[in-house]
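Cross-check.
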Amino acid sequence: MVASRENEPGGANNRTTSERKSDREMVITRIFDAPPRLVFEAWTTPELFRQWWVPKSSGATLLSCEQDVRVGGGYRLEFAHPKAAAPMAFFGTYLEVVPNARLVWTNEESEDGAVTTVTFEEKDGKTLLVMRELYPSKEALDIAIEGMDEAMPETFEQLDQFLIARGAGAMLNHSDVSTRIPAQDLARARAFYSARLGLEPVEERPGGLRYKCGSGYFTLFQSSGSASGAHTQMGWEVNDIEATVSELRQRGVTFEEYDLPGLKTVNGIAEIDGNYPSKGAAGERGAWFRDSEGNLLGIGQPRR
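Predicted model, tokenized:
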């Protein structure tokens, strides 16, 4: 048995489609005008999730939202409603978590709870989201579909508006960072980065060379200006700074030596107190060198 319905509270291109695939399965589909990583983030970050999940017309209020989004992790949502004498809780366990691509979780608040699968597929910069609800019986879906048929289109419309609102700002916190390094002589710089650092550009255009290191990028660009050399313009985090310094020295890199208040190098490496909490480190070891254009570059290793 297949029953299908299209709901269009918003634009026609972003309408929500619901389809009963079988006695036990319901499928809801919508295209969101945002990349999968942002849509996935809205589903897996409690402070974002709570801003769009509850249909406003329902009169319900989301009191708390806990999400431990990992395989075996759990979630718990507690709601209040004017017609309910006590808060209602919905909870379950994440069975599959594929970042920016797939979520599968259980709904354990009753024996009739579904297993929910949500997939996030990139389509020309947008996200095709497909939500599948597989219930244990026909009767369970019959009961659930009465509220779902109206609630989910409204919920997805709220998510669409939430993503649009977030996209209306600068959104720099969701944008990738790419460093620009000036070079008065681009050919000379290219030779240095190749021979001394073992790096080759992944792309090039007139006046520019683009490099990839790990998950990040940097660009060398032709510039008539010169680097001040007074501060670090780019750095790499490595697992073994002594081995890295040794290898680069063998390639002809010369490391800076400093003897300043709070910064002293020994054989090119300084011990630095303090680090960011996310690093789980008490400090950092650092080393610095200049490229062929006078740019000051750094290498760091968290000290644990």
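The two ends are 60 Å apart (CA to CA). Residues 3-172 form a domain with the Alpha-D-Glucose-1,6-Bisphosphate; Chain A, domain 4 fold (CATH 3.30.530.20). Passed to J.P. for a second look.
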